[in-house]
Amino acid sequence: NEGSLWGARFAGGPSPELQRLSRSTHFDWQLAPYDIRGSRAHARGLAAAGYLEAGELERMLAGLDALEERWRSGEMQPRPEDEDVHGALEAALLVEIGAELGGKLRAGRSRNDQIATLVRLYLREHAARIGAELRALIGALAAQADAHPAAVMPGRTHLQHAQPILLAHHLLAHAWPLVRDLERLRDWAVRADRSPYGAGALAGSSLGLDPALVAADLGFALGPSENSIDATASRDVVAEFAYVAAQIGIDLSRLAEEIIFWNTREVGFVTLHDGYSTGSSIMPQKKNPDIAELARGKAGRLIGDLTGLLTTLKGLPLAYNRDLQEDKEPVFDAVETLEVLLPAFTGMVATLTFHVERMAELAPQGFSLATDVADWLVRQGVPFREAHEISGALVAHCERSGLELHEPSDADYAAIDPRLTGAVREVLTVEGSIASRSAAGGTAASAVAAQRAHLDERLAAL
Ligand code: ARG
């Protein structure tokens, strides 16, 4: 098997069926630049340990540069007989710099420690990109909040009107989970900051190579893995990344669901920008929230990527097993999914038009100020249990007589309970209700302004 990484102990080459099953170049070819980066570091390690002369190292590095160049231009492609990116690159290097020198690079390393390292390098780069996209989305939510400092809306629990809130408060409620996702990516990056390179197949290298050199060369701040078996066998770093990706998907999906709801004719809180909505092939009037729906759908896909990966890992004995090759497609899919979804989603949020009059009209409906009646009674010295009863009786009265809470006469109030007087009407406005919730984290404008400042501080600390 010409140009293969193994074969001497085999009587013949692999069957075509095995080759088709085993081949991973159609998805791991994109790891070539990381593999080459690893090879440069490894070559320098070999030179430091005396296995490559200075001139040989120079030619080796030049050859690796040439491969990277040919990979970038698309001129170099894996051959059908290449099992994976590692084999394909070694074969290409042998052609580039000759078999004698090229054949020295593989000493003291294995595809097992290589692949564990490359996936980390790949994920680290993409985590940074996804983090930047998340920041942009948080920025779009914050900008919408800033643009609507006084807009009110019905706050809901169980999807029922609960208490009136500021739109800005609700928008920021979607920003905070994304801030935590950013923090999760940062925390993940710390655990991913160790280099498996040098672990060899599983037991470490006998050639006197220093894994710390390679780790430093590749920018792994915590140094090499502490245990060569763990280094090659574990993929929790990959699974954790897939979890964060799935969580981001879920957080987008929950906002997406609200946008879809707000965009219905019945609710009418938002209009989507034409550039961020789609039409129907049959119904000319349609303008659909497809970005939000795709976000909701892709959350399912991201959860699938995570569960598929976890299921692959469960039950694998130490150390490397070929099952581990199955970690890449799900996590690549998670990365690619977020990288196409986030920019579109951010554009949709940034260009949303809010219909603040419609929101204000609905804010007091559904007796959403009933809690304010109870709280007003508490401030008059009524125990909350009784206040809740009185306010509930007022709601029942209003529901029967088709009135809003402020509309019954003073006599009707007194008939419900003598402690309920006309003075309660002073809190029966959306603005009054919102302004009263001024404790930290509440929906009053002053509390929301403080929250908004905290958001900037948390982002600045990341
Ligand atoms: N392509 C493999 C992977 O993605 C790495 C190769 C290790 N193969 C082996 N037979 N030990 O995990």
Automatic annotation (TrEMBL):
Pfam families cross-referenced by the UniProt entry: ASL_C2, Lyase_1
GO molecular function, one term: argininosuccinate lyase activity
Catalytic activity: 2-(N(omega)-L-arginino)succinate = fumarate + L-arginine
Subcellular localization(s) per the UniProt record: Cytoplasm
A Gene Ontology term for the protein's cellular component: cytosol
Gene Ontology biological-process annotations: L-arginine biosynthetic process via ornithine
Domain Fumarate lyase N-terminal, chain residue ranges per copy: 21-304
Pathway assigned to this chain's UniProt record: Amino-acid biosynthesis; L-arginine biosynthesis; L-arginine from L-ornithine and carbamoyl phosphate: step 3/3
Entry keyword annotation includes Amino-acid biosynthesis: yes
E.C. no: 4.3.2.1
Superkingdom to which the source organism belongs: Bacteria
InterPro entries linked to this entry: Arg_succ_lyase_C (IPR029419), Argininosuccinate_lyase (IPR009049), Fumarase/histidase_N (IPR024083), Fumarate_lyase_CS (IPR020557), Fumarate_lyase_fam (IPR000362), Fumarate_lyase_N (IPR022761), L-Aspartase-like (IPR008948)
Domain Argininosuccinate lyase C-terminal: 367-435
Keyword vocabulary terms for this entry: Amino-acid biosynthesis, Arginine biosynthesis, Cytoplasm, Lyase
Principal location class: cytoplasm
Record-stated family: Belongs to the lyase 1 family. Argininosuccinate lyase subfamily.
Record's protein name: Argininosuccinate lyase
